[in-house]
Design brief:
With about 350 residues, this protein is an alpha/beta fold. The protein is about 45% helix and about 15% strand.
């Protein structure tokens, strides 16, 4: 029986090789075979390294080159607004946007995107996409508590809420300065939007005496917890997962009373039919396991929004409580909240 199985497998491989030989020209140049057959232009708020990984993998496997153009959120909004035209037959200079959901919401309200839905996007929770399918979230990066395992062995009162963390005694806390990173500032704004400003500043005032150092980068609080310099850090999940993969003694605690996240999503802008189809295919690829696999292989650990993916099914924090992040504080309001934190908390 085993010999028969080997024979069948060998025959199958020979047939597959023969078919492949008939499909490709005998004198085909390998470089020509690998050349992209089409291109897409994508505006993005992703770091250049992350965008480069996605572009290289997608081009290699789909023969479509995605030319990412890194921009700030406001630059993206301004560029697609300038690119918007009244004649629907005119092709835009950008085909797809992959960016922070905040700017996608703002641009969608200006009718700058083309509605799109598919089996993959339809599976995404309503909280992670536009109600009119003008943009869809592909992954998110929540703020979590990153605890040192040695510290956890010494305590029975696990601080699993923001209030418990702020009131915990004899504890050292790591956190990124709210002025230093968007993810950190976003945490404060979403706390205010969900808890109210009075309770939020009470929590932050309680945390302040415990903070060893207000870090300038998102990775530093995770490193501090991993090295035992602090007991618990308020940190982004992606950095924590990266350090866990590198063997640091950490444990993730998901705040039971809710937390903020940075949601990244896509929106299609092109009016060209062919480009629209290419952009849609790329969007569905972003929602699948393949994109997550290559990101994780390169040390980027985000939580997919598509519950059908293996990456989501293996995610331990499926019951993570997220704040309602749809508050639309003006820049003046955000500046005022940060100024109040500096005056009433940081400098006291």
């Amino acid at each position: 029986m085993r010999r028969y199985t080997i024979f069948v497998l060998t025959a199958f491989m020979l047939i597959l090789a023969a078919v492949a030989g008939m499909t490709l020209p005998v004198d085909a140049d390998k470089k020509t075979l690998g050349a992209p057959t089409a291109e897409l232009t994508a505006y993005t708020t992703l770091p250049a390294e992350t965008a480069s990984i996605l572009s290289e993998v997608y081009e290699r496997e789909n023969h479509v080159r995605v030319n990412f153009v890194p921009m700030s959120s406001q630059e993206i909004l301004q560029n697609i607004r300038d690119d918007a035209v009244s004649d629907p037959t005119v092709v835009r200079t950008v085909d797809i946007v992959l960016a922070d959901s905040k700017i996608l919401r703002e641009a969608a309200d200006l009718n700058l995107f083309k509605p799109y839905t598919s089996e993959s996007s339809d599976a995404v929770r309503d909280a992670f996409k536009d109600s009119q399918d003008r943009w869809v979230g592909v992954w998110y990066d929540p703020i979590i508590f990153c605890a040192n395992r040695d510290f956890l062995r010494t305590t029975v009162n696990l601080p699993d809420t923001w209030e418990k963390l702020s009131k915990a005694e004899k504890i050292r806390v790591g956190i990124t300065d709210f002025l230093a990173a968007d993810a950190s500032a976003n945490l404060m704004f979403q706390m205010i939007g969900n808890f109210g400003d009075t309770k939020t500043y009470e929590i932050l005032s309680g945390l302040h005496p415990k903070v060893v150092q207000y870090a300038k980068f998102l990775s530093n609080p995770v490193r501090q917890a991993g090295m035992g310099e602090v007991d618990i850090s308020v940190a982004v999940a992606s950095e924590t997962l990266r350090y866990l993969q590198n063997g640091y003694p950490l444990k993730i605690i998901y705040p039971a009373d809710g937390t903020s996240c940075i949601l990244t999503g896509f929106a299609i802008t092109t009016n060209d039919v062919a480009k629209n189809q290419l952009a849609a295919k790329f969007a569905d690829w972003l929602l699948g396991d393949e994109a997550q696999l290559y990101l994780q292989t390169n040390g980027f650990y985000f939580i997919p929004t598509n519950p059908q993916t293996l990456a989501y099914k293996s995610f331990a924090g499926k019951n993570l409580v997220l704040f309602d992040g749809r508050q639309n504080f003006s820049r003046e309001q955000q500046r005022a909240y940060l100024d109040r934190w500096i005056k009433d908390v940081r400098l006291k």
